Amino acid sequence: MLYAAAPAAPGTSAAVAPGPAAREAFASGRAPASDPAASGPRAAGDGPPVLALAFDLGAVGAEPASRWAMLAYDDLGSIDYMGRRLRPYWRRRGAGPEDLLRAAYLKEKGRDPENQLCTDDFAGHLAHNVNLSAKATLALGVHAMLCRMLGKAAEAAAYRRTAEELAAAWVREARDGDGDGDGDHYRLAFDRPGTWSQKYNLLWDRVLGLGLFPPEVARDEMAHYKKVQNRYGLPLDGRKDHTKLDWVLWTACLTGSREDFDALVEPVHAFLQDSPDRVPMSDWYGTRDARVVGFRARPVVGGVFARLLCDPKACAARRAAGSTSTWASRRSSASAGAPSGPGSGTARGSGFAA
Prior knowledge:
By secondary structure, this protein is an alpha+beta fold. Helix content is 32%, strand content 13%. The chain has 3 domains: 1-88, no CATH class; 97-197, no CATH class; 223-321, no CATH class. It is built from 11 helices and 11 strands. A hairpin with a 2-residue loop joins strand 5 and strand 6. Helix 3 (130-149) runs antiparallel to helix 4 (153-174) and helix 7 packs antiparallel against helix 8 (258-274).
């Protein structure tokens, strides 16, 4: 099942309607109207319906106008096991669509992740991943933020408290103090002393203003990165020399220091200039020889713009246009109303059909 949702607000409407009718309404400047018949079962080629949202942006001039919408997918019974329709594995214990956020799972498993896939799995599967633990901690902090925006004060407080507890444990248990005097950074894995890795996920503590990790964590990590990076960039971790260009750009933003940013980005620029592999920008390459390992022209290279999310100076043009300097400062102005489901809301204006 596909869901489309938007904050309940004047000028916003939602509808389930036949695709052609919805597109015709938008083309003529009208908001699509719901058609009860469009929600029922039908043959695959029998006028597939769409979920349509419409927003009234008002009179748009020099000041920017924006709205947001959320799309979600819920697997109800798509597994066919010998003629039996089964629920998906994640719903085996009665989980509902709201559990897609996986907050309960992160609360249970996020502090010390088990052996599982992660975005760096081409470097080898890894249990007790410190960077993945930081990601889970920040996700719980974001979930607390969302609960607060929805008016769920008790849940917000509980998840915020959990996130703070996990962050404190992370700082205490990930610190590399293996007795060799090199206790100036945080490990690759909780059970691997003498190791290190990029903690690029910590970027979102700054971007979203969560304040879960002490600033000295980023400063200590950055100081260590400068010691171990190679001619063409900072490796993902100490196991191999290759790196991910987008993650390096995230990592370069951790402290907010322009000097630190330049220190990590200049080797990336050297890679792009010197690489003998003249191909569209790769995000996976060797930091010693500037050779492309894989991946070309992928959307993830949008990570080069990470600084725009958290640097007030880099966002001066946005501020001049009437927007705030960071995403963190925007959260307070975000809608506090719960997203409305298809078929709810009021009507006006222009929008899109999904």
